[in-house]
Amino acid sequence: MAQNPFLIIAGPCVLEDLDTASYIAETLKNLTAKFGFDYIFKASFDKANRTSLYSYRGPGLEKGLEMLSFIKEKHKVKITTDVHETWQIAPVAEIVDVLQIPAFLCRQTDLLVNAGKTEKIVNVKKGQFLSPWDTKYIVEKVRSGSPKEVWLTERGTSFGYRNLVVDFRGLPVMKEYADRVIFDATHSVQLPGGGEGKSGGERHFVPYLIRAAVAVGVDGIFMEVHPEPDKALCDGPNSLPLSELEKIFSEIKALLSALQNV
């Protein structure tokens, strides 16, 4: 069986305005095509787990799905977004190619089972509080609904207060259970709640973690990106600037080529 192309899931943390989201999608589509990667555009219509009540959450379900639908049609890209409640699953599944389950909700049985019933690909972010071995039960819940595939995404593990670390031993463990394992490089450098009412981040570490994950053998990289991360309305401190992606993609390509010869 032919191996799937290396996957890039990327976009802004949350939908801000259509022009920005569309520009990001177009840029990433062209860059990933240049390096031979498969591409899925990601953005949230609602960030229901923001640290502060006053943080920007997104345009909401109706307007957000309109924006995602426009981007999908205009740029001919695959789409993913996250769902937080079971009633969101049906309308979102009509638009997206991959349903994403947020890390904080990765054990919500009804959410997982009903996502699987859509027969879409379901990508579950591994909770910061969970061991890689526990993801076996997540996958079982999703598979009970006959999904197309189940993916697991590593995004770091809580290590003390306001800090995350990545245990790369967990990636091959999760591969025993899931159809694909993705590495979320930008959330892994997040400092949860570390910005006094919002999350901080250390984006300068992202390229190093990407190299390590590719070397371990992940099936794809998830990253949040923005033309000007310091002006992003959500997760700016751990998002990558679009201007850095060509270099990062080049490094991924070189590592993949090197691994083929090992």
From TrEMBL:
It catalyses: D-arabinose 5-phosphate + phosphoenolpyruvate + H2O = 3-deoxy-alpha-D-manno-2-octulosonate-8-phosphate + phosphate. The gene is kdsA. GO terms for molecular function: 3-deoxy-8-phosphooctulonate synthase activity. GO terms for biological process: keto-3-deoxy-D-manno-octulosonic acid biosynthetic process. Its main location: cytoplasm. Belongs to the KdsA family. It is found in: Cytoplasm. Pfam families: DAHP_synth_1. The keyword Cytoplasm applies. Keywords: Cytoplasm, Lipopolysaccharide biosynthesis, Transferase. Residues 4-253 form the DAHP synthetase I/KDSA domain. GO terms for cellular component: cytoplasm. This is 2-dehydro-3-deoxyphosphooctonate aldolase. Its EC number is 2.5.1.55. InterPro entries: Aldolase_TIM, DAHP1/KDSA, KDO8P_synthase. The keyword Transferase applies. It comes from the Bacteria. PANTHER family: PHOSPHO-2-DEHYDRO-3-DEOXYHEPTONATE ALDOLASE. Pathway: Carbohydrate biosynthesis; 3-deoxy-D-manno-octulosonate biosynthesis; 3-deoxy-D-manno-octulosonate from D-ribulose 5-phosphate: step 2/3; Bacterial outer membrane biogenesis; lipopolysaccharide biosynthesis.
